[in-house]
Amino acid sequence: MANTVISLRGATKQFGGLVAVDNVSFDVREHEVLGLIGPNGSGKSTTLNLISGALPATDGEISLRGGTITGLPARAIARKGVSRTFQLVRLLPSMNVLENVMAGGVFGHRRRWGQSAERHAMQVLEMIGMADKAKSHVGQLTYIDTKRVELARALSGEPEVLLLDEWLAGLNPTELTEGIDLIHRLRDEGRTIILVEHVMDAIRSLCDNCVVMSSGKKIAEGSTDDVLSDPEVIRAYLGDDDA
Ligand SMILES: Nc1ncnc2c1ncn2[C@@H]1O[C@H](COP(=O)(O)OP(=O)(O)OP(=O)(O)O)[C@@H](O)[C@H]1O
């Protein structure tokens, strides 16, 4: 069986009296695309924030290839090999596309500088179909292209694991097909990905396994087909009245 890359044990996050992530444990294996799904407000983004170090956990342990990353600042976790995209795209507005992607390489898992960072950033831009826009100002890009650049920035750090937080949200139907194809390519490259996503077609076609959250708790995990036909999962999505 493939090696475990990310492991959560009893991960918990409280915001005052609210337990947004409640004693959650799961593993992500090498080359796995894991869907982290659940209704609005169930704690998915907060879980990603705990893994990336954007938020400190209140309790529990998170490890990367067996080494604990609990309590480390986000930049240290990025350095160790966890890259992410954000629900609201965060690019550096004064820099062009190539410079934004290079920044991911400079601050990422494998430190690259100067020409090496630039060469690698160009390779990533070619892979995601943005090489012709390398010198464009990020303010001139279409919405999907800003999302592509953010993904390229995350990839340019050569992460061990990529966290995608609703990367497909807000795309029109044509863009959505392109976006799903792009994540398929990452999957085919054997990348390890945690995908927080509401687009069920994407979950079905991309994810080997899913973890389902509801009100901060993990309520199911397993193969995507099994999980999506689990009555408790269906109830959590539809609400008790509709089940
Ligand atoms: N910084 C914060 N301070 C206080 N409460 C928060 C904070 N971040 C999230 N929450 C609360 O924690 C709960 C879980 O939120 P979270 O964003 O993780 O859910 P989610 O499953 O990602 O939802 P969505 O699918 O709508 O993005 C929600 O009740 C939310 O209001």
Quick rundown:
The protein is α/β, with parallel strands linked by helices and 243 residues long. The protein is built from nine helices and ten strands.
Radius of gyration: 18 Å
| Total DSSP E strands | 10
- Quaternary organisation of the protein chains: single chain
Number of domains: 2
Uncertain segments: none
Q: Spatial order of the strands in the main sheet? A: 6-7-8-3-9-10
CATH topological fold name of the largest domain: Rossmann fold
Span between termini: 37 Å
* Succession of helices and strands: EEEHEEHEHHHEHEHEEHH
Helix coverage percent: 25-40%
What is the CATH homologous superfamily assignment of the largest domain? P-loop containing nucleotide triphosphate hydrolases
- Give the number of helices: 9
At the first level of CATH, what is the class of the largest domain? Alpha Beta
The biggest sheet, with number of strands, parallel, antiparallel or mixed sense and barrel status, is: 6 strands, mixed
Helix-strand category: alpha/beta
Query: Hetero groups bound?
Result: adenosine-5'-triphosphate
Strand content: 25-35%
Arithmetic mean of pLDDT = 90
- Globally, the shape reads globular
